[in-house]
Each structure stands twice: as structure tokens, then as C-alpha cells.
Q: What sequence folds into this?
């Protein structure tokens, strides 16, 4: 079969399309003919950093979906070796795709959608009328987070970097869309004194100033770091406003097969009902995985990127 392999750590150029042996599933695994592969920023880290994911040489990727020989349609957000035509995935890591959801939509929704879901329903359960700030709002998580926040009755201030991205975020329901320049001052003014929560998937460049956008008892929620990990902070800084900080992970919120399937079912129900729109920002042939990474790192994309074997 064909798969994307990285032979060494480095930039997108280390990714190669190779012929590799078909996977042989273990007793707790299921063999899936892959129809769509999810591309995520963590895949960038996998080829850049030691010990982040599989050690080179290895097949990349953790997200995908497809059909088994028995006709089951399954998707997964935490598998392995997913940049391929076929994968052996642990049964406990898979979720069934309902009849009303296309496979590519399920793959596009699963990891980032479940992330948005726990952020809005658990990390800070938005209450009616709450102001929240969403960074990188035109990304895969950001667009779904904005929609879910509105479903909860929240009022959303969204940050994007271009007018084209701003248009998409307005369509998702954001109340205000602003740029990164002077975002703290704008957020405080628009919210009337500060937001209840900052949902930060950017990290280094936005984390420290984001504290000043919070109201008293506000929550700073760092769920990603596309610009790098934030600088160390002095914990006494939290005393100004009695601020809460969380660094959540999807793995915690889906740490058992039961929690995973419960979260995925709730997400897919919102997709089926039309309450949550999933934007697929680009479909790339598997052979063009390098270009997908280049576009992702250059911030040229919106929504979710998929590879199609």
C-alpha cells in the first residue's frame, strides 16, 4: 500500500510517499480501508520533535476514517500510522459513524469538534450571556467552537488574521471579529470589562496578554500552541482577578472508550441536526501531504484539511 513516511526529523521535505507492507491487525485492532485522513498541527510537531509521536522512520498521522471488510464505517482521532491507504486501529480508539454523516465530514469533525465540545461544555461551561474570546477563530477548532458557544447562549469575540477569515467567522455566528493588534483593549471594551473565558489555541504570542482580557474569576484555557509554548509565568499574576488557568487535553476528556464514544455521539448528533457546520478547508491527495503541511504552517488554510488516499 501507499503511505506517507518521514525518515528523519525536519520540515515538510522529510515526508515521502512510499510503498509499505499492509498492516496486520492485532487481536484488539481492526483493519480499515481509509477514505479520509485528518491533518492537524500535532502532525507538524511529530516530524519536528523527538518523542512527540512515532520515532522516525515511521508512517505519520493519528486521525482518519473509513470502512472495514465487514462494512462498518469507523473514525478515530487517536490512532497511529493514518497517512496511508489502510490502517490497523485499536478497536477502543474508534467511534462508529452514523448513517447521516459522511465519512469525510466525520473525520473533519472528530478531533477538532470534540475539542471544541469539551472546551464549551466542560473547560468553561458557557452560560447564557457570557462573553468569551476565541483565538484563531477561523481554524478547525475555532469555527466549531464559535458555533457551539453561540448554541450555549454565549457572546463571542473572535480573533482572525485576514478579512477572508473574518468573513467565515461571522458566518459561524461571532458577535465581533477583531485582529490580533490591540486585541486586549478591544476585547475589554466590547465585552464591557472583560470576558468570562479566553479559549487560546495559539500559545506563545497571545497567552500572556490574554490575561488582561479576562473579567474577575475568568478562565484562561490554553488548549494548543500553534505559535509555540507560552513563556513561564509568575503565579502571583493570577491574584489580580483571581484567575483560573487550565491546560486541558482531549485525551483526558476521552480517556476511556466509553467517554470517547459518548463525546463523539454528542458531536455527531449536532452535525446530523445541522446545528454544527463542519468546514473542510482543503482536500489533498495523499501524495500531496507535503503541500498540505506547507499550507497549514503558512496559515493559508481555514477549517479542516483532509488527505484522500
A:
Amino acid at each position: 500500500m501507499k503511505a506517507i513516511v518521514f525518515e528523519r526529523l525536519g520540515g515538510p521535505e522529510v515526508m515521502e510517499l512510499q510503498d509499505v507492507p499492509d498492516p496486520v491487525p492485532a487481536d484488539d485492532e481492526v483493519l480499515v480501508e481509509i477514505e479520509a485522513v485528518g491533518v492537524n498541527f500535532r502532525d507538524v510537531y511529530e516530524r519536528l520533535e523527538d518523542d512527540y509521536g512515532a520515532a522516525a522512520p515511521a508512517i505519520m498521522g493519528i486521525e482518519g476514517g473509513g470502512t472495514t471488510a465487514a462494512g462498518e464505517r469507523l473514525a478515530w482521532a487517536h490512532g497511529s500510522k493514518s497517512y496511508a491507504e489502510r490502517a490497523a486501529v485499536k478497536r477502543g480508539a474508534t467511534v462508529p459513524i452514523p448513517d447521516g454523516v459522511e465519512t469525510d465530514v466525520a473525520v473533519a469533525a472528530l478531533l477538532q469538534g470534540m475539542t471544541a465540545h469539551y472546551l464549551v461544555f466542560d473547560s468553561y461551561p458557557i452560560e447564557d450571556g457570557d462573553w468569551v474570546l476565541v483565538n484563531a477563530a477561523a481554524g478547525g477548532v475555532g469555527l466549531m467552537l464559535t458555533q457551539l458557544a453561540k448554541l450555549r447562549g454565549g457572546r463571542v469575540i473572535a480573533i482572525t488574521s485576514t478579512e477572508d477569515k473574518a468573513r467565515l467567522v461571522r458566518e459561524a455566528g461571532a458577535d465581533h471579529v477583531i485582529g490580533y493588534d490591540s486585541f486586549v483593549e478591544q476585547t475589554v471594551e466590547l465585552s464591557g470589562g472583560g470576558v468570562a473565558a479566553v479559549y487560546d489555541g495559539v500559545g506563545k504570542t497571545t497567552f500572556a496578554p490574554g490575561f488582561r482580557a479576562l473579567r474577575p474569576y475568568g478562565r484562561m484555557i490554553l488548549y494548543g500552541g500553534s505559535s509555540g509554548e507560552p513563556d513561564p509565568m509568575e503565579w502571583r499574576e493570577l491574584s489580580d482577578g483571581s484567575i483560573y488557568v487550565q491546560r486541558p487535553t482531549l485525551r483526558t476528556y476521552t480517556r476511556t472508550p466509553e467517554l470517547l464514544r459518548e463525546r463523539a455521539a454528542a458531536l455527531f448528533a449536532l452535525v446530523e441536526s445541522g446545528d454544527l457546520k463542519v468546514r473542510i478547508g482543503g482536500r489533498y491527495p495523499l501524495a500531496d501531504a507535503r503541500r498540505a503541511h506547507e499550507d497549514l504552517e503558512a496559515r493559508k488554510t481555514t477549517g479542516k484539511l483532509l488527505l484522500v488516499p
Q: What stands out?
A: The mean pLDDT is 94. The radius of gyration is 19 Å. DSSP finds nine helices and 16 strands in the chain. Residues 93 and 255 are 10 Å apart (CA to CA).
